[in-house]
Amino acid sequence: MAVTVSRDAPAYDAPVRVASGSRAWRRFAFNPAALTGVLILLIVVGAALAAPWVAPHDPAKQSLLRRFTPPVWQAGGNAAYPLGTDQVGRDVLSRLIHGARISLLVGVSAVVVSVLLGVTAGLVSGFMGGKVDTIIGTIVDVNLSFPQILLALAFVAALGPSLVTIIVVIGLTGWERYVRVVRGEVMALREKEFVEAARAIGVSRPRIIFRHVLPNTVSSIVVLSTLQVAQAILTEAGLSFLGVGSGRAYPTWGQMISLGRDFVTVAWWLPTLPGLAILLTVLAINLVGDRLRDALDPRAV
To answer: Contact 124/175 with Cβ under 8 angstroms?
Structure first.
């Protein structure tokens, strides 16, 4: 006997394959590693947002009279410069605080570019299949065959170093991961009963994709995006270290390491402190990302 599905049937929500919100929140909130990562990120983000007000000095102001002032806990340190000064007398603490703004801005903005491109391509590839899937898959395979840092260097060399260029370049060299993750989940979801029911009542493909399929991939996208922010920060630091980052107009952690490496024997704090800033920030983001993955895992008890 044929079953007729009315177009006037009540709206329904596609089942989202994530753990319940309250249970996921408890698993995350009561995890010591997650709380440690959140605390570090709050400090870094807070300092970056309030940099003009919390930085004790102008990060670009030079004074050869106070060059190589050691940190305050060493002999010869000055309380006015808690983390010392660099080879031209600029305050290291102020440069670290302002450098956090660049690292976080590049990391978050680049991931936004990757998410918009990669998630869209992954949804279309996984849902449409056929030739569309083959074409997108081939493009992804070609991009993944090149090391990300080499692609970034080639783009920056062609376009010239600038903050916008770095954001776009890192974003365009990190979208492939989203395509593969989202495509795999969409291919598993497109044959589910709720998708078949949506097709049966005449729901359009774009509505099925963005209303019923996309919400089921959000947890994976959130976790991957969190981890990708850390990767983008490392990539920006590497490019700045090589002298092809956002340019000399902004103090960045990678640039500080590059400028201080020649003075490591007489001023150890110049490359060490920005290196520690990168280490702690990336570690905090990875801690939060890993614990988010555990908390959002629907198989977790």
So the answer is: no
